[in-house]
Amino acid sequence: MADKVYRASTTAPVNIAVVKYWGKRDATLNLPTNSSLSVTLAQSDLRTLTTASCSASYPASEGDWLLLNGEPSDVSGARVQACFRELRARRAALEAADPSLPKLSTMPLHIVSENNFPTAAGLASSAAGFAALVRAIADLYELPASPSELSLIARQGSGSACRSLFGGYVAWRMGGKADGSDSMADQVAEASHWPEMRALVLVASAAKKGVSSTSGMQQTVATSSLFQERIERVVPQNMAVMEKAIQDRDFAPFAEVTMRDSNSFHATCADTYPPIFYMNDVSRAAIRAVEQINAAAGRTVAAYTFDAGPNAVIYYLEKDTELVVGTFYHVLGGEIDGWKNDAVKGLKPTTSLDGGVASLLKGGVSRVIMTGVGPGPQKADEHLVAEDGTPVRR
Ligand code: ADP
Ligand code: DP6
């Protein structure tokens, strides 16, 4: 059937690093200067849904295309092209070995994707987006590739995306080879190993960010001397302590490394010349709030971390929901979006935050996301491309 439309759909999660990737040793292959480690977040709250399709009936003149959140998205960039090229090459090898297979590698790709949260707002849409793109095309092509092998491809789309091919607790090993063949992700532990991990995201700004991570990290590598200390000493030590904390389900060291690593990353941004500032007054108020919550509890119950933007991600364990979420809920008020009624109902305000901190948070946090550790990409039955090849309108 020359007009048959082949389709595969997948969802993919966001991940938030607790040991940050910041710095490239090879910008073309997207090879990092250090290993990193992240927690994959539940897809009920933050996810990409992507359908990859191909057909001999798709006009060759249109080439490959991607529709992202209903809008055409440029696929001519080197990153998307690298993903397409690698996946097609693997499919072509299967077709060469078994001539009875349909020649999907020669057909144009039409991809339709939706993020159920703001794109390019510092909520790791690129991680979920590239992980979903790679997984969906790999499924379309029926590639026998493991998630680690696919992570090699997703890495070339966006570094942090390689960690979104797994659920739970995920490491991206920097590797040492010049061709990047050993720079890939693996799973440190399943979500079910430590399922009590929760994350409260304080959205301080849903606007597009200032300095992109790609260019920010290149400026840091080129100009910061503190950065050398980070990649040579700080990160290797943080990786070791973090992996053990996860294996032992030990929140105190998990939290301390998370906070120290975020601080170390933002210190290298401040040491970049000219300096880069991702955190703002609201972000710093969130840091103080976490310190006050931990001090009042007499133990570490919450850990903050910040990516290349002002939003705070606060990790905590389910049993400490009242201490952590209760405090933020009463400061921020129930009017803002994102509270899960079942989870906040009846929570008491356990810590009273110092006045300045409370008013900065109240004035600057526009929305929260309540989520937790979750699984990796899932095959989806819902297709964003209809059987006749047209995009599905929703
Ligand atoms: P974020 O902080 O959300 O990761 P970035 O600016 O780093 O923002 O990345 C946003 C870019 O990631 C988008 O412009 C797009 O190129 C890519 N992206 C986001 N979502 C998807 C998706 N669902 N499918 C493919 N690419 C995506
Ligand atoms: C601060 O993965 O967005 O979120 O590889 O250039 O696409 P590119 O960068 P990207 O950088 C993420 C940086 C970070 C830390 C992290 O997720 O580890």
Overview of the molecule:
The structure is a single chain. The protein is an alpha+beta fold and 394 residues long. Helix content is 36%, strand content 21%. The chain has a six-stranded mixed β-sheet. A four-stranded antiparallel β-sheet has the order 2-5-10-11. Strands 13-14-12-15 form a four-stranded antiparallel β-sheet. It binds adenosine-5'-diphosphate (ADP) and ligand DP6. It catalyses: (R)-5-diphosphomevalonate + ATP = isopentenyl diphosphate + ADP + phosphate + CO2.
Write a brief caption for the model:
The chain has helices at residues 78-97, 125-140, 147-157, 213-223, 226-247, 251-270, 281-297, 321-332, 341-344, 355-364, and strands at residues 6-13, 15-19, 24-26, 31-32, 36-40, 47-54, 65-68, 71-73, 109-115, 169-173, 184-189, 197-203, 302-305, 312-317, 367-372, 378-379. By secondary structure, the chain is α+β, with helices and mostly antiparallel strands.
Instruction: Give a short account of the largest sheet.
Output: 6 strands, mixed
Which class best fits the helix and strand makeup? alpha+beta
Anisotropy-based shape: globular
Bound molecules: adenosine-5'-diphosphate, ligand DP6
Kindly estimate the percentage of residues that lie in beta strands according to DSSP. Answer: 15-25%
CATH architecture of the largest domain: 2-Layer Sandwich
Supply the number of helical segments: 10
**Got a strand count?**
16
Q: Order of strands side by side in the largest beta sheet?
A: 8-7-9-6-1-16
Element pattern in H and E: EEEEEEEEHEHHEEEHHHHEEHHHEE
Helicity, in percent?
25-40%
| CATH T-level topology of the largest domain | Ribosomal Protein S5, domain 2
Write down the CATH class of the largest domain. Answer: Alpha Beta
Pathway: Isoprenoid biosynthesis; isopentenyl diphosphate biosynthesis via mevalonate pathway; isopentenyl diphosphate from (R)-mevalonate: step 3/3
Protein name: Diphosphomevalonate decarboxylase
Domain Diphosphomevalonate decarboxylase-like N-terminal: 12-185
Region (Disordered): 375-394
